[in-house]
């Protein structure tokens, strides 16, 4: 079979004639002479070996074969546009693909908005998202399974990583609605020591332990579930405690003596590796979203 000789320009003339309803209309839309459009479509028909338009009509009416070929032409033009967008991405940014690791406990609304804006800003980007615990997302970057990660600061990081703090999220002390401390009054540090504390830490780190009885978990969601099951009290990010799944089961307990600071959020990347334009934009935008977000 001989190689096809048709061009994308002919496909655009074909699509324009169908959209305009006439060759003259297509010519005006494209800024070309009508003879150019007519000749181009005639050559296309010769190449395909089928008539695309019914020449007995004054308007550009498709034949049955023309209807089928028009669908194929439209799809081809869409593919060409996607190819052009991908080429544009490659010319404007260092990567065509980005693997992003996200702490599963980060505020959902901020992350949701971030991803939607990412899709609009870089439409040809191929994105891989890895959602895991704070410690796991750090490992993804360290093992170079992810280009960049955002997570809650859980302490020292590997020497192969570098960090940038970008914002913070409010946190508080929470108990189950039926817990003895759910009396609506302030509690003291001494009162907290009477009950089991549930701590978000996979390394059994007692730095944040205020009670002699502690349980550990590597997931804030797991901690929230245990608090709801009246297994103890915990310090939780407000965005986790306010999720619909826990809202009716958890109660914040004011404890001024703890003077809880906001839980910092940081970006992780390989030390010395130059960050792409996309990664830098994600960093700046997530910092803005965390700043603009509600107290939780």
UniProtKB/TrEMBL annotation:
Q: Is Transcription a UniProt keyword of this protein? A: yes
Mind listing the UniProt keywords for this protein, alphabetically? DNA-binding, Transcription, Transcription regulation
The protein's name: LysR family transcriptional regulator
Any matching Pfam family: LysR_substrate
Q: Give the organism the record lists.
A: Janthinobacterium tructae
Instruction: Indicate the family of this protein.
Output: Belongs to the LysR transcriptional regulatory family.
Q: Which CDD domains match?
A: PBP2_LTTR_substrate (cd05466)
> Record's InterPro entries?
LysR_HTH_N, LysR_subst-bd, WH-like_DNA-bd_sf, WH_DNA-bd_sf
Q: Name one GO molecular function term.
A: transcription cis-regulatory region binding
**Where does the source fall among the domains of life?**
Bacteria
Domain HTH lysR-type stretches = 6-63
